[in-house]
């Protein structure tokens, strides 16, 4: 007797997320999307032909467009409002803890994100685990390798976000079997996977990316939505900068390979986030700086702009409630102290609004890097890679401070700022702080700041000081310490699976 329906009824959406590629994990899908059928000998056919595989690959790509809440909206809340870049923005109990450092395992944002990330992993696993079983001879060996590589890049992206948020989590790479009365003892544990270590997570991400870089599509200048070799190289550069795999030689290697793929800084910073002259569409897509972006056009819009500010194509659309991720006084001050008008005006905008949670309602600042329903969301861009190379040159065993300073100056030059002075260029610690500041101003509201502080062990130094100097921040609840580098695992996850343990400090 099949117990699938009973099992689903006894578990939550969380459990379905944990079930890897279980055919139950997304019950709203149509039957044909879940499974193509069963052969006469009882073998389950997940993809009956090439068209079914390509349809599922499209589903993976659609996650970049249709499910932005966890990988973009929530990630900006964490990276900017949980750092010194922004306030929570609204008074909601689910978001304020990121500003005042009172996050607990009951936080609904983290619960949503954990579940959705694991659902994304399950979608990737479905293709990775089953594509080689497809009997359709029109699906060539080269196509199988490429599609699998794209799915591995997607899985690596998801796991990279997860490991930076939580550290230890279940690294799921297999498909959970259906439970029957005959196999329940054997299969049931698959739905409650163990918690892998942070190092094991990074090793799996590394393996996926090294596999994928061989077979993924090349960078296509006219289409930056692809999970390409360049995306894999970008992620390799980023993971080798993190503590568990830290290898600055490899960071430099993969940053240089991204450069060799044809990427460079755009001349005009406004090309990245601006609107066209008519104010009806994004100014540009697929710039030479964009490595991976989610694109939106009229009729298939980017709803994220509602969360952060105004939709410039539809001025009053959803502008009646307080927005998330309000730029902090400390960040605004950093722009002004640097004289950085170029990036400031592309990052922050002021409007009249109906609320005054942090500023007077008639002169209220908003995050400005997502401006309309037609704005692209840039997940990775070359300025991040370039500044990461500078970081590696500073932090490697034999620092190349001059080379790092030259890179920082290249980024500053686009912002119409002068070169770093000799006193900064010749001192490792001073130059590292200059790099951190440059990354802060260049990449504000792009999901970077918190992770920069964590990666370089700057959380306590920066965050415990900002509350005293930023008069607009809500009062700090808990002091940042060594346990703050990881966020709490959702309590509902721990309640459902005794193999999952809470991170220290929560």
Question: What is the structure about, briefly put?
Answer:
With 506 residues, this protein is mostly helical. It contains 23 helices and eight strands. It has a single domain, classed as Serine Threonine Protein Phosphatase 5, Tetratricopeptide repeat (Alpha Horseshoe).
Can you walk me through this structure?
This protein has helices at 4-10, 13-18, 31-34, 50-66, 68-81, 96-100, 108-130, 141-166, 184-187, 198-215, 229-239, 248-260, 270-273, 305-308, 329-338, 341-347, 382-395, 401-414, 422-425, 428-442, 449-455, 459-469, 491-496; strands spanning 37-38, 44-45, 86-87, 290-294, 326-327, 348-351, 364-367, 377-381. The protein is mostly helical. The protein has one domain (46-180, 187-456): Serine Threonine Protein Phosphatase 5, Tetratricopeptide repeat (Alpha Horseshoe). The strands form four sheets. Strands 1-2 form a two-stranded antiparallel ribbon. It has a two-stranded antiparallel ribbon with strand order 3-5. The protein has a two-stranded antiparallel sheet with strand order 4-8. A hairpin with a 5-residue loop joins strand 1 and strand 2. Helix 4 runs antiparallel to helix 7 (108-130), helix 4 runs parallel beside helix 8 and helix 7 (108-130) runs antiparallel to helix 8 (141-166). The chain is globular, with a radius of gyration of 23 Å. It starts with a helix and ends in a 10-residue tail after the last helix.
